[in-house]
Design a protein that fits this description.
Blueprint (H helix, E strand, L loop, with lengths): L1 E5 L8 H13 L4 E6 L1 H10 L8 E5 L10 H7 L4 H10 L5 E4 L3 H12 L9 E2 L1 E5 L2 E6 L9 H19 L6 E4 L10 H11 L6 E5 L3 H4 L4 E3 L2 H27 L3 H9 L1 H11 L7 E4 L4 E4 L6 H16 L2 H12 L9
Parallel strand pairs: 1-2, 1-4, 2-3, 4-12, 7-10, 8-9, 8-10
Antiparallel strand pairs: 5-11, 6-7, 11-12
Helix pairs in contact: 1-12, 3-5, 4-5, 6-7, 6-13
Length: 342
């Protein structure tokens, strides 16, 4: 199995991307890496790490990079040899089996849509992000691909999230909830109100009804469906809250008495365990569901650990045939019949 990695995407590219790829080939025996980007820069890092002759790591040169500030669609049209576009074409042409895309989320989504196309029956792909909860993990989607969704897009997202949760969580029948401002089916905006009965009609998805924001950390359901605007706000709020809580705890310990500090030392292992569970770097990346290929989007600030984890996720999803599962489920549910749900 070959994984195409955009070595030039993100705040710490190419160094951290290459280091994460090196770590992945040493950790996982079944995956080879194709690093896409500036050949000379990538070679320099590989040589410094003593990995230039590693047969499981190859380089595919790409002369251009799409920067975070650039408009994704315009940049992709102008920069045909951009690293993210080249990496995507490697999957389209069956040279590689999956893409790892750090950096601009907009550029990644646009590249996947243009380069891979959509699974039949899916109008708008969405990003599925695993969130730590009291019960383990809840998958939230969409977490940023689409700021405005129609009811049928949320229905299709629910089906994709259900299939992803089956593979990621190992649950045969993960539960699905619709994010709303109340549990009652009569609450919410127009889109949510129209989506609710459509989700009730699904034949194979165990829809549990509306869930509120406070239900997400409780792990009330395995999959939470929302539009990308709301989902991205929830995701960024959660990341910021974890950071603030950690800072408050550290500051509180610094200002405590000697006895309190000694007591704090005794619970350091507990804090480390909690931090590990809440740390978004433990998840590596989030798949863009709905495109015709395994495509993992990583945080722009991703470092080597996250890249290594994202590569593992990509390999698992290829091996477990995620695309085939989603395609089959979409056709079985017949979501194309919801075209009147505008």
């Amino acid at each position: 199995m070959k994984i195409a990695v955009d070595a030039m995407g993100g705040d710490f590219a190419p160094l951290e991307i290459v280091l994460g790829s090196i770590a992945a080939v040493h950790e996982y025996d079944t995956m080879d890496i194709v690093l896409v980007g500036d050949e000379s820069k990538i070679k320099e890092i590989l040589e410094a790490e003593g990995e230039l002759d590693n047969p499981r790591i190859s380089i595919h040169h790409a002369s251009e990079v799409i920067e975070m500030h650039e408009h994704p669609s315009i940049a992709l049209r102008k920069k045909k040899d951009a690293s993210i576009a080249v990496a995507t074409r490697l999957v389209r042409d069956k040279v590689c089996d999956a893409v790892i895309a750090p950096g601009s989320t907009g550029a990644a989504v646009a590249s996947a849509l243009l380069g891979l196309g959509r699974i039949k029956g899916i109008e708008r792909p969405c990003i599925a992000t695993p969130l730590p909860t009291a019960n383990g993990v809840t998958i939230m989607l969409d977490s940023g691909a689409n700021a405005n969704s129609k009811p049928k897009h949320l229905v299709q997202g629910a089906i994709m999230g259900y299939n992803y949760a089956q593979l990621l969580l190992g649950k045969p029948n993960p539960t699905v909830g619709l994010l709303n401002i109340g549990e009652e089916s009569t609450k919410g905006n127009e889109v949510v109100l129209e989506t609710y009965p459509l989700l009730q009609q699904l034949k194979t998805i165990p829809f549990k009804g509306n869930v509120e924001g406070r239900d997400i950390p409780k792990g009330t359901v395995d999959v939470v469906v929302c539009d990308g605007f709301v989902g991205n706000v929830v995701l960024k709020f959660a990341e910021g809250l974890v950071t603030v809580v950690q800072d408050i705890l550290k500051e509180g310990i610094k200002q405590s008495s000697i006895i309190s500090k000694l007591g704090a030392l005794l619970i350091v292992p507990v804090f480390k365990k909690i931090k590990k569970r809440l740390d978004h770097t433990e998840n590596g990346g989030a798949p863009l569901l709905g495109v015709n290929g395994v495509f993992i989007i990583c945080h722009g600030s991703s470092k080597s650990k996250e890249i290594m984890t994202a590569i593992k996720i990509a390999g698992d999803l290829v091996e477990r045939k995620l695309i085939e599962h989603i395609s089959s489920s979409i056709q079985e549910e017949g979501t194309l019949t919801y075209d009147n749900a505008e």
